[in-house]
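Late entry, written up from scratch paper. The run itself happened at the end of the previous shift, but nothing got recorded in the book at the time, so transcribing now.
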Amino acid sequence: MSDSQGKDLATVEHGEAPLYPLPPHRPRTTDTDPRAARRAQRQVATQFALSAVLTVGFFVAYWVVPVDQTVELGPFGVWSLSNLLLGLTLGGAILLIGTGAIHWAKKLMSDEEIVDERHPLGSPEEDRAAAKEMFDTGLAESGFAERKIVRRSLIGALLLFPLPFIAFLRDMGPMPGTSLRNTIWKKGTRIVVDVSGQPLRPEDLQVGTLVSASPEGLDEIQEEEGTQNARAKASIILVRMSPDEIRSDQSPEGETWAYEGILAYSKICTHVGCPIALYQRRTHHLLCPCHQSTFDLADSGNVVFGPAARRMPQLPITVDDEGYLVAQSDFTQPVGPSFWERG
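Output as recorded:
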């Protein structure tokens, strides 16, 4: 708080006495008794060392304790033993680093009390030099250099502390590996309307139409696997345009993948995997609603705008003996967002 002249009520101009002087300074026990200082030093180092032990205990619990093992905690019910030990060890490691640092500051660092006068925000060069000198003095007075056991135990605890977060990466699931390189599409698989399961003929699609579709038999596969993984990878969109509007629709071998102006693309954006169905009929652009990546469906699904780094995977299609739209093969490139294992 400041008075009407803008002076801090606890400080005044040069040469004047403080309006509210500080009480007499009372030295701490660790300032006057070397044995107390050494005892405080051991207490700080012990807390840092225990933090390191608990971090190691975290890894032991993570790898040794089965995830399905439980423990009865009376009125608190049944708990997962793995989760309980992981929380106690990691929480204890964090707590001990914090309490050790507080104990170090309160018992061993400099205990000098000062009153600092206000100064202009634009500090002159001499003030900046003085600030650096104060920092160097504080560093020296903290005892970080001379109290080796505190320094080493703190460094050890801080070096081990981040490791549990690396272990957490394992719980994000397995690497994609080859799982994104293949879907349930194969030669002769019929294309059906998503949800309803109605097979499609070319005459069912008018020019400018976009339909969300999936492979026939998808529901049975999902029920058998118990997951939505097959749908996430195999979902497609069918779009029909005039054949003369298609600028590029060929495989690297020169084969045509469309059928009478009908094209099939993966429904999953190659940026971060959002489903796409926003189609601009006039430009033949497909827009991702998440980050506005835009793909030209008349030009092999190439990227024309946004953060996506590769084109939309295209499904080669044709018709079977009964005139229904079918896949010629699986996708020839991985579906979904790019990943570092993709060669």
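The helical segments are 29-32, 34-64, 81-107, 125-141, 148-160, 163-168, 218-225, 229-234.
(Scratch paper discarded after transcription.)
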